[in-house]
Design brief:
Elements (H helix, E strand, L loop, with lengths): L11 E8 L2 H12 L5 E5 L4 E3 L3 E6 L3 H13 L3 E8 L4 E6 L5 E6 L14 E8 L2 H9 L4 E6 L2 E5 L5 E7 H8 L5 E3 L3 E5 L4 E2 L5 E2 L1
Parallel strand pairs: 1-2, 4-7, 8-11, 13-15
Antiparallel strand pairs: 1-13, 3-12, 4-8, 5-6, 6-7, 9-10, 10-11, 14-15
Helix pairs in contact: 1-2
Protein name: Glyoxalase
InterPro entries: Glyas_Bleomycin-R_OHBP_Dase
Organism: Agromyces tardus
């Protein structure tokens, strides 16, 4: 690959999800998470089945906020895949939006320090990779620096990006989300970044 012909990738401005009902999807993301600009939607009937190969994570400051976002998502129509529960690393839950996208809400904090709220500290897109090393190399050749990397997990350093990016072995990502790893067809997501238009080794499209 001639890296001199590649536009450097530094930021993800938003993601665009393929949905059947645009108005309903916009209403869900506003009601469930208070998201408007970071998550866009477009009408599509692209065929897909099973796990779509990615998850979106909302990182918050305390367990009460995890519960608040879980409750608002379910009230807006999401399906709970994993309830709010403690683990060695913190507190988290997983829900599936009516359009099929899988969302994780998590915090590394073990205790609450203030009343519950729905403030979101950061958003992270985790892509399921068949070969994490190859996909990591693909993105580093496009200018991304690796922030953390261990085993089958990679977190890219994108300090100025509205949405962070990470890689996880596809099967491990599905297990973390509480779904079967099998899936075929469209990912039903477009990643809107500053690195030009391309498709990564796992079929994720960027524009």
């Amino acid at each position: 690959m001639n890296t001199t012909d590649i536009t450097t990738l530094t930021s993800i401005d938003s993601v665009t999800l393929d949905v059947a009902d645009v108005d309903a999807a916009r209403r869900f993301y506003a009601d469930a998470f208070g998201l408007t600009s970071q998550v866009r939607v477009r009408a599509s009937d692209a065929a897909t089945s099973g796990f779509r190969g990615y998850t979106l994570s909302l990182i918050v400051s305390q367990p009460a906020n995890v519960r608040a976002l879980f409750d608002s998502a379910v009230a807006a129509g999401a399906t709970g895949l994993k309830p709010v529960e403690k683990s060695l690393w913190g507190v988290g839950c997983v829900v599936q939006a009516p359009d099929g996208a899988i969302w994780k809400v998590a915090t590394s904090a073990k205790k609450d320090t203030r009343p519950a709220g729905r403030e979101i500290d950061s958003i992270v897109l985790l892509l399921g990779a068949d070969d994490v090393s190859a996909t990591k190399r693909f993105y580093t050749e496009r200018g991304l620096a690796v922030g953390k990397s261990f085993g089958s997990y990679v977190d890219f350093a994108m300090p100025s990006s509205p949405i962070g990016l990470g890689l996880y072995k596809r099967r491990a990502l599905a297990k973390d989300a509480g779904v079967a790893p099998e899936g075929t067809g469209s990912h039903r997501i477009r990643i809107d970044g500053d690195g030009g238009s391309f498709t990564d080794p796992d079929g994720f499209a960027w524009e």
